[in-house]
Amino acid sequence: MDNHTYTMPLIGDKAPSFEAETTQGKIRFPEDFKGQWVILFSHPSDFTPICTSEFVMFGVMQKEFEQLNCRLVGLSVGTNASHIAWLRSIHDRIEFKGYKRVDLNFPLVADMSMEVARKYGMIQPGVSTSAAVRAVFFIDPETTIRAVIYYPMQLGRNFDELKRVLVGLQTIDKYHVALPADWRPGDDIIVPAPTTYDGTEKSVSGMKCYDWYFCTKPLPVEKEKAEAKAYEKA
After folding, report:
1. How far is Cα 16 from Cα 172, in angstroms, rounded to an integer?
2. Do 127 and 45 have their domain in common?
3. CA within 13 Å, CB half, 103
4. Number of domains, the chain
5. CA angle, corner 34, sides to 32 and 39, nearest 5?
6. Could you tell me if residue 224 is inside a domain?
7. 151, 203: one domain
8. Are strands 214-217 and 189-191 parallel, antiparallel or unpaired?
9. Is position 108 within any domain?
10. Cβ of 157: how many Cβ atoms within 10 Å?
11. Which residues span the domain enclosing 56?
12. pLDDT at position 222
């Protein structure tokens, strides 16, 4: 067992590299996925109910993520044989929210040594020393970590939020904007706070200003419509 102490990677760090066997063959991460977004996520254990419900939803939404140029990569402390048997069981026997016989075609890392889980701060001793917590890392096409979400063992992930975060990050990069709370495609964006504001831009740009530090405005109409349409299709 690897007892090396790793520093948890933070937003803005490069994604730690690793090579591993998966249910889809051997991968080099993140090198094999450069040029694409990646959602790297961990789960505590195979053949457990909350994890099973999550994997149904990952399978259901896999094509939506791929249409957004995003690949899914799963991980847990388990063997490849266990992973494969569990994924087959989910496909053959499990129904959740009306979804059944769901295909699971993304790689699931077999991390028996816990080396990868440790590199990514997924082993948190206050919860478990032998199972990964529910972590989600959003990694951009330049292999930089852009967002991190952790969930406790007892709480399944919100998949609408995972998609919203991904689309939000892509929108930030594409249009060089900032986004407010609960933003969804089609909503107004945030205007960075100026040092001074005399109100002259309001009629020109369509901004709504409530005070000098809080202004919003829509994306240009054609961009806004295109983004909302792509989000709905994905």
Report:
1. 24
2. yes
3. 4
4. 2
5. 85
6. yes
7. no
8. antiparallel
9. yes
10. 19
11. 18-157
12. 54
**Which residue in the block uniquely carries the two structure tokens 């701060």?**
121
Determine which helix (DSSP H) or strand (DSSP E) holds 210, and give its type and residue range.
Answer: strand 208-211
Q: Taking each helix axis as running N to C, give the angle between helix 159-175 and helix 49-67, from 0 to 180 degrees, rounded to the nearest 10.
A: 30
Q: What is the pLDDT along the chain (234 residues), one digit of tens a residue?
A: 455 555 789 999 999 999 999 999 999 999 999 999 999 999 999 999 999 999 999 999 999 999 999 999 999 998 999 999 999 999 999 999 999 999 999 999 999 999 999 999 998 888 887 688 899 999 999 999 999 999 998 999 999 999 999 999 999 999 989 999 999 999 999 987 765 555 555 544 678 888 888 989 998 765 555 556 656 665
Task: Count the neighbouring beta carbons within 10 Å of the beta carbon of residue 194.
Answer: 12
Residue 51 annotated as catalytic: yes
* Residue 199: predicted pLDDT: 58
Q: State residue 204's pLDDT score.
A: 47
78 and 124 share one domain: yes
**Residue that is last in its domain, among 111, 128, 157:** 157
Q: Which of 51, 70, 209, 215 is catalytic?
A: 51
Q: Is residue 171 part of a domain?
A: no
User: How much is the pTM?
Assistant: 0.88
Contact 75, 135 (CB under 8 A): no
Between CA 62 and CA 210 the distance in angstroms is 40
**Which residues are registered as beta bridge partners of 215?**
191, 209
Residue 142 lies in a domain: yes
CATH of the domain at 140: 3.40.30.10
